[in-house]
Amino acid sequence: MLNYEQAVEWIHSRLRLGIKPGLMRMNHLLEKLGNPHQKRKTVHIGGTNGKGSTVTYLRNVLQEAGYTVGTFTSPYFERFNERISINGEPVSDEDLTLLVDKIKPIAESMEQSEWGGPSEFEVITAMSFYYFAELKPVDLVLYEVGLGGRLDSTNVITPMLSVITSIGMDHMQFLGNRMEDIAFEKAGIIKPNVPVISGVHQPEAVKVIEETALEMKSDLFQLGQDFSVKRIALLEKGERFEYISLLQHDTFELSMIGNHQINNAAIAIKAIDLLVKNQEMKIAPEHIKAGLKRASWPGRMEALSDIREIYIDGAHNPEGVAALVKTIKDRFLHKRVTVLFSALHDKELKPMITQLEEAVDSIGFTSFDFPRVASVEELYEVSSHPNKAEVHNWKDYLENKISSMQEDEVLLITGSLYFLSEVKPYLLPLIGKNRKK
After folding, report:
1. What Cα–Cα distance (Å) separates residue 262 from each residue in 106, 165, 188, 232, 323?
2. Cα–chain-centroid distance for residue 373?
3. Among the listed residues 37, 258, 256, 236, the one whose alpha carbon sits nearest the alpha carbon of residue 133
4. Is the pTM of this model over 0.85?
5. Is 371 exposed, middle or buried (0-12, 13-18, 19+ CB in 10 A)?
C-alpha cells in the first residue's frame, strides 16, 4: 500500500511518457478494470475555452435537482484531488490512494506490451472511471475533454450528450494550424445518434461540426441558431440575461462575470433541456435558476476582495484574452487597469499581449517556477505598451501594488492557470492583511 504522497508521485511520474494520443491503451486499461466507463451516465464536454465553466453550471443545476454529480476536469487549480470530484468535493486522499493501488500494477504490466504504458492523463482518466463506477457511484458524470477530442483519453465513453463550447487557436502542435483542423479534432467527440450542442461561432469550424453531426446522424443544436442569449444587465457581481429557444424564453442571473459566461450558461441550459427531454431527468425551472446563480469556478474573473477591485482570470490563449478584454471594456471603462501577466512560452504570446495592451493602462510581465514558462524578458520584448514593466519578484510587486491601490484602480492577474494557482493562496492573506490596515 502506498501513502498519498507516494500515490501522487507515481501518477506524476507518468509525465515522462508525454502526451500519447490514441485510444488503444485506454481501452486495454479499462478492459482490465472491468470497463467501468460503461457503467455510468455521462455528458462529454469539449472545446478550447469554456469547458470548466459549462461543467460547473451543469453540476450546480443538477445538484439543485437532487442528483449526485461526478466531475472530471483539468487542470486542477489548488490541489490535485480537484480533478476527480463529487458534488464539488474532491476525491479524498484515501480514495485516491486506493485508486492508484488498483491501477498501478495494470499500468506497469502494460509497459512491455504492444500498446506501451499509459500516460499520466490516461491513468487519471481511468482512475475517475473506476471511482465513479465502483468506489463512489454517482447519478451522472460530467467529463471534460483533456486535449482535442477525437484521440483524447475521455473519448471512450458513449455519453447521453456531447458539448463543444468553443474553438480557438490553442495546442496547435497537436491539433493543427487551421481552424478546420482543430474543429475536426474537437468534433471527434460526436457519437452516432447522440445529440450535440455547439457554441462555436467561426463559419469554417461550424461547417465541420455540422458535417460531422450529419455523418453521425446526431441532432445538432447551435448557439445563435437553435437557441440564443441576450445580456440584459451588468450586475455588480455577475450577469443578467435572456435565454431564447423555440419553446423557452426566460431570464437568468449568474454570479460569474463576462459575456462569454452568458454563452457558457446558455449551452448549459440547452444541455439541461435535452437531458430532461431525452433521458427523463427531472429538473424544474427553479433548479436551473438557482444552480446558475450559485455556480462559481476558480480563476475565471474571480474577485478576491470585496473592498478593492482585484481579480484573477486564467486567459491563457488568444480567444480567452479576447473574452477578458471585452469584460475589461464592459466593466472598467472609467477605471485605471493594471495587469500582471505570465504565460507558458509555447502559447501564442504576441496575439495575447497585443490584445491586452488595448484595454489596460499598465502591464507587468513576470515568470514563475514551472516547465515551459516564458521568461520575463521574453514577454517584455513582445510588448509595445508605453507603460510596461519587468516584474522579477511577483510577490513583492503584488504586495506593493495592493497596499497603494486607489478607489479608481483595478488589478487583474492573468495568463497561465498554473500561475494563478500559485498567486491565489499568496494573495488571499495579503488582501486580508491590507484590509485590517
Report:
1. 43, 12, 25, 11, 11
2. 20
3. 37
4. yes
5. exposed
pLDDT digits (tens, 9 = 90+) for 30-78: 999 999 999 999 999 999 999 999 999 999 999 999 999 999 998 888 8
> Tens digit of pLDDT for each residue in 139-153?
999 999 998 899 999
Count of other CB atoms within 10 angstroms of residue 279: 12
Domains annotated on the chain, with CATH:
4-294 (3.40.1190.10), 302-436 (3.90.190.20)
Q: Rounded distance, CA 232 to CA 384, Å?
A: 36
Q: In this structure, what C-alpha cell is assigned to residue 138? A: 454517482
Q: Distance between alpha carbon 308 and the CA centroid of its chain, in Å?
A: 26
**Range list of H helices, 280-383:** 285-294, 318-331, 349-359, 376-382
- Identify the DSSP state of 344: B
* DSSP annotation of 225: T
SS3 351: helix
Q: What is the rounded distance in angstroms from the CA atom of residue 93 to the CA atom of residue 104?
A: 16
Residue 381, helix vs strand vs coil: helix
Write the DSSP string, 229-270. EEEEEEETTEEEEEEEETTEEEEEEESS-SHHHHHHHHHHHH
393-428: string of b/e by CB count within 10 Å (b at 16+)? ebeeebbebbeebeeebbbbbbbbbbbbbbbbeebe
pLDDT digits (tens, 9 = 90+) for 366-401: 999 998 899 999 999 999 999 999 999 999 999 999
Other C-beta atoms lying within 10 Å of the C-beta of residue 188: 19
Run of H or E including 196: strand 196-198
**Which residue type is seen at 283?**
I
Q: How many residues does the chain have?
A: 437
| DSSP code of residue 340 | E
What is the DSSP pairing of strand 42-46 with strand 140-144? parallel
Nearest CA to 332 among 221, 415, 236?
236
In the chain, how long is the greatest CA-to-CA distance?
A: 64
Which residues share a beta bridge with 249? 244
Q: Which residue has the cell 454529480?
A: 69
> How many CB atoms within 10 Å of residue 212?
21
| Inter-CA distances, 426 with 28, 371, 393, 430, Å | 42, 20, 13, 7
**Rounded mean pLDDT of 73-88?**
94
